[in-house]
Amino acid sequence: MIQLTTPISEEAAASLKAGDTVEISGYILCGRDAVLPKVLKMIEDGTIGDLGVDLRGQVIFHTAVSPAGVGPTSSNKLEIESSIEPLSKAGIKLHLGKGKLHEETIKALDRYNSVYAVIPPVTALLGSKTSEEHVVAFAELGMEALHLIKVEKYPAIIGAAHGRSIYD
Questions:
Q1: What single string gives the DSSP state of each residue in 103-142?
Q2: Pick the residue with more confidence: 65 or 4?
Q3: Do residues 122 and 130 touch, judged by C-beta distance below 8 A?
Q4: DSSP-assigned letters across all residues of 68-88
Q5: To the nearest 10°, the Cα dihedral for 161, 37, 78, 132?
Q6: CATH code, domain with 139
Q7: Backbone phi, then psi, for 156, in 5-degree steps?
Q8: Backbone angles phi, psi at 85, to 5 degrees
Q9: CB contact at 8 A, 61 and 116
Q10: How many structural domains compose the chain?
Q11: How far apart are CA 168 and CA 151, in angstroms?
């Protein structure tokens, strides 16, 4: 089991291979289809610094945060998968969700030394490993706002890294 702590270094991201099992600890961002296009707009507008969160070395978990807990949504939804390349370019090192990504997305991850990890949809387990949460931006979206959470040993499997996928 590979231990990853945020922010994730370039070297740590470069060492990960498809099929590696990891445990992620530290602060991670949470966002899905409603908020990711807004984050991309902030990157395009040059206002991403207004969030007060550095994207470099960060993890983004494709989830909403609700009283029921957190659990992965499908990363291959159009609004989510289309955010992976620009977020990787902006510094995100690990995208966390579920499902198979398209080949073009896997190549884009490789271009920016980013990886994609799948996480089991087990909200109760993840809830017990989440100790803090707060809204970073877009509070009007409720549970689909951009959140920052603190996690301890989130289990995941690297699903795509350096041009390879566990789904191939």
A1: HHHHHHHHHTT-EEEE----HHHHHHTEEEEEEEE-GGGG
A2: 4
A3: no
A4: TB----BTTSHHHHHHHHHHH
A5: 60
A6: 3.20.130.10
A7: -160, 165
A8: -65, -50
A9: no
A10: 1
A11: 30
> What φ, ψ does residue 82 adopt, rounded to 5°?
-70, -15
Q: Measured between alpha carbons, how far is 24 from 58 in angstroms, rounded to an integer?
A: 11
Quick: pLDDT tens for 52-85: 999 999 999 999 887 777 888 999 999 999 999 9
**Burial (0-12, 13-18, 19+ Cβ within 10 Å), 22:** buried
CB-based contact 20:147 (threshold 8 Å)? no
* CA of residue 56 relative to chain centroid, distance: 12
pLDDT in tens, 90-146: 999 999 999 999 999 999 999 999 999 998 767 767 778 889 999 999 999 998 999
Report yes or no: 68 and 48 within 8 Å, Cβ to Cβ.
no
Domain containing residue 61:
2-165
**72 within 8 A of 121, measured Cβ to Cβ:** yes
- Kindly provide the b/e burial profile for residues 28-37, where b requires at least 16 CB atoms within 10 angstroms of the residue's own CB: bbbbbbbbbe
Spell out the residues 6+ positions from residue 87 whose beta carbon is closer than 8 angstroms to its own: 36, 39, 40, 43, 55, 60, 95
